[in-house]
Amino acid sequence: MTPYTKTEVLLQAKDLQLSYGNKCILHDINFSIRDIIRPGLQQGQVVSLVGRSGMGKTQLFRILSGLQKPTSGSIIIRERKPAEVSPGSIAVFQERAVRPGDMGVIFQNYYQFGWRTVRQSLLLAARRNKLLEGKEEDTMLQYAEQFDVIDILHRYPSQLSGGQQQRVSIIQQLLKGANFLLLDEPFSGLDVCVLDKVVELLQQVSLSDELKTLIIVSHDIATAVAISDTVFILGRTKGVEGSTLVRSIDLIERGLAWQKDVRREREFEETLEEIKACL
Ligand SMILES: Nc1ncnc2c1ncn2[C@@H]1O[C@H](COP(=O)(O)OP(=O)(O)OP(=O)(O)O)[C@@H](O)[C@H]1O
Ligand SMILES: [Mg+2]
Questions:
Q1: Which of 86, 133, 150, 180 is the most buried (most CB within 10 A)?
Q2: Given this model, what pLDDT does residue 147 score?
Q3: Using a 6 Å cutoff on CB, does residue 58 contact ligand 1?
Q4: Those residues with Cβ within 8 angstroms of residue 35's Cβ, 6 or more apart along the chain or in another chain
Q5: Is the Cβ–Cβ distance between 81 and 94 less than 8 Å?
């Protein structure tokens, strides 16, 4: 197995509960995401959150993004202090509760500024990132090239296909520079070729910075397992209202993470069966 270590906690969900009135939606949710270190690589983290329809994935997604407050509990993130980021400086970290805007959120079929062209939207995102000062345009063009949207920069969102919109929103969030990227159903509605491309791109993103952390909510268990290092399963426990994390699976320990042809492994199939049994 490839050598790796897990070090600092980058994100911690502590005792999350969510209720609407008397109705409990989520209870006792505790998990953490640690920084993964692999020698010679800038290995980011990829975590998938799976569960049947109505289990509270979108609610948990919203809580993670800081857009929704839980009834109790908190999400703590560890971030690099911006002032300290300069070549050669030692990174300084701080821990704090997540706030709206901390995470790059990529909703399904998402576009924000219908009246701006792709180029304008992307440049706007780049200009908000102080680390890109003076190289906004170059960085934007690099991503556009890499994500194959260079020919559609002059278009408006309504003139894009679903897959193009999705790639544009991923670039937009990357340009903003957030370490955490939350993706809601990033694999749905894509044809097989585009799906492979999106998986490849997300893998590239996860290798672009050691602290990059992708959190993916998906119904597509096979693709989620193929791309992730950890899977969390939201489900029910007998006799208790609401959902909680019923299982977490460390795919690195099973030798299923970071492998190109992982779908051919017997253990991959077994893991899918195991997950389905928990749903
Ligand atoms: N504003 C609300 N008031 C009351 N209940 C709500 C509210 N929003 C969501 N719910 C309930 O919370 C539960 C979880 O919903 P959520 O949208 O998170 O499910 P999900 O796992 O994302 O499902 P899907 O896979 O279908 O998207 C559902 O039972 C839903 O009815
Ligand atoms: Mg949902």
A1: 180
A2: 84
A3: yes
A4: 6, 7, 8, 9, 10, 45, 210, 211
A5: yes
Going by the DSSP 8-state scheme, the letter that residue 200 receives in this structure is H
Res 195: pLDDT = 85
Contact 227, 48 (CB under 8 A): yes
Per-residue exposure over 186-202, b if at least 16 CB sit within 10 Å of its own CB, e if not: bbeebeeebbebbbebb
List pLDDT tens digits, range 18-47.
Answer: 999 999 999 999 999 999 999 999 999 999
Residue range 77-94, pLDDT digits in tens: 997 765 555 566 666 788
Is the distance from the beta carbon of residue 115 to the nearest atom of ligand 1 less than 6 Å? no
d(CA 136, CA 122): 9
Model pTM greater than 0.85?
Answer: yes
- 61 touches 184 (CB < 8 A): yes
Q: What is the pLDDT of residues 108-128, one digit of tens each?
A: 666 566 889 999 999 999 999
Instruction: Assess whether the C-beta atom of 53 lies below 6 angstroms from ligand 1.
Output: yes
Residue 239: half-sphere exposure toward Cβ, Cα within 13 Å? 0
Write down all domains in the chain, each with its CATH number in brackets.
5-103+180-187+210-278 (3.40.50.300), 108-177 (no CATH)
Q: For the packed helices 118-127 and 162-176, what is the interaxial angle rounded to 10 degrees?
A: 20
pLDDT at 163: 80
Q: According to the model, what pLDDT value does residue 85 have?
A: 56
CA atoms within 13 A on the CB side of 130: 6
